[in-house]
Amino acid sequence: MTVNKRWPAGIAAFAGLWYASESLRHRREQGSGYDLHGTELRAGSQEFLRAAEAITSSPIASGNKAEILINGDEIFPAFVETISAASTSVNLLSYIYWHGEVARSIADAACERAGAGVEVNVLLDAVGSAKMGRELIGQMRDAGVTVAVFRPPKPYAIRRLNNRTHRKLMIVDGEVGMIGGVGIADEWSGDAQDPDHWRDTHLRVRGPVVRGLQGAFAENWLEATGDVLVGPDYLPDLQPVDGGCPMQLVRSSAGVGDTNVEALYFLAIACAKERLNLTAAYFAPRPAFIEALCEAAKRGVDVRVLVPGEHIDKAFVRLAGRGAYEELLQCGVRVWEYCPTMLHAKTLTIDGCWASVGSVNFDNRSFQLQDEATLCVACERFAADLDEQFERDLARSEEIDLDRWNGRSLPAKAVERVLTLARREL
């Protein structure tokens, strides 16, 4: 059989055009970030909150409280306790739901509530939860739990295979919410004591902002099932909590141009005046975000970045992120790698008065490709607690020294450079 020699060139041209068309969604890949025009803003101020509300279309809710939960020993008992207290509804959305003791304990709690007449809805991302045992899904469905799968792979929707829901949400009775970075699997059990037990941060939230968590769940649930969740079982009247703080649930989805979370992070970094503490499970920043962090450091902000070390579960992401270290270190950004185990937390604090905790990583996959959600908190007490945990994590981490970093091998530099070119998909 004779092969037309023009076929390879034609295929290459088609692939190039497809990649270029997809790049419309990543138009800042080689560009600069945002410029902050107008009155100088301070993170956490009323002016800042109004700006965050305007650019994300996410309302600020007053009178909320958030409980910080560190690692599985705190997170999963809170999960089970919260589910077990449900009287009307449980909505659970997870990118990762795998197998093991943790997965069974959450399923058992969901089944018990469904058996008691509570409406229990579980939404699983088709890709992230692909390793989940089928027997658990069967157990939940047999008990009356409604289980749905988000965007199962289909031949006619191959371009959407990359567009997952990475959100980790639970809302009980429309009144109590949980959000953060944890996946439902044994890897997140324990207290980050060894490489088999991961480090993560999650929140339990009360107050009017819970309606935002419910909205983020309902958005993905509607696409997956066609069901609209309304009524007091899902959307009760929520009163402010005494002593609560302003909070904002920001959610974003893949689309053309910039996402809400991307715009929010640029705003927060641009408004930093004193210190910025970033914990990122997957750190592969595009040039615009490298520039934003460097600009903050150059204007005197103490910028500190904490990322996973050798125990990261996706080594190629670590290598791609390391390609940015030299530029960041040269401009004054300080970088640490976490030593004991996989660091899966996603937190950001600015000037000790504003914080973000959710599912958002510091990479293009979170900023452009996936559905994400993060809870933003304007509260000094809350930010101080997160900063204390950040210091504890730094004590178990190794800081990257610029001189020593520059002395790494040429092969290592070459691999980092190659993977940096692929950061659009990371």
Task: Please characterize this protein's 3D structure.
By secondary structure, the protein is an alpha/beta fold. It has 2 domains: 29-58 and 245-426, Endonuclease, Chain A, CATH 3.30.870; 65-243, 2-Layer Sandwich (Endonuclease, Chain A). It has 14 helices and 17 strands. The chain has helices at residues 6-22, 46-56, 71-84, 101-115, 134-142, 210-225, 260-271, 287-298, 315-322, 325-330, 364-369, 380-394, 402-406, 410-420; strands at residues 61-70, 89-94, 119-125, 146-150, 169-172, 176-180, 201-206, 245-252, 275-279, 283-284, 302-308, 334-338, 347-350, 354-358, 362-363, 372-377, 397-399. Strand 3 (119-125), helix 5 (134-142) and strand 4 (146-150) form a beta-alpha-beta unit. The radius of gyration is 22 Å and the shape is globular. Residues 14-30 have low confidence and may be disordered.
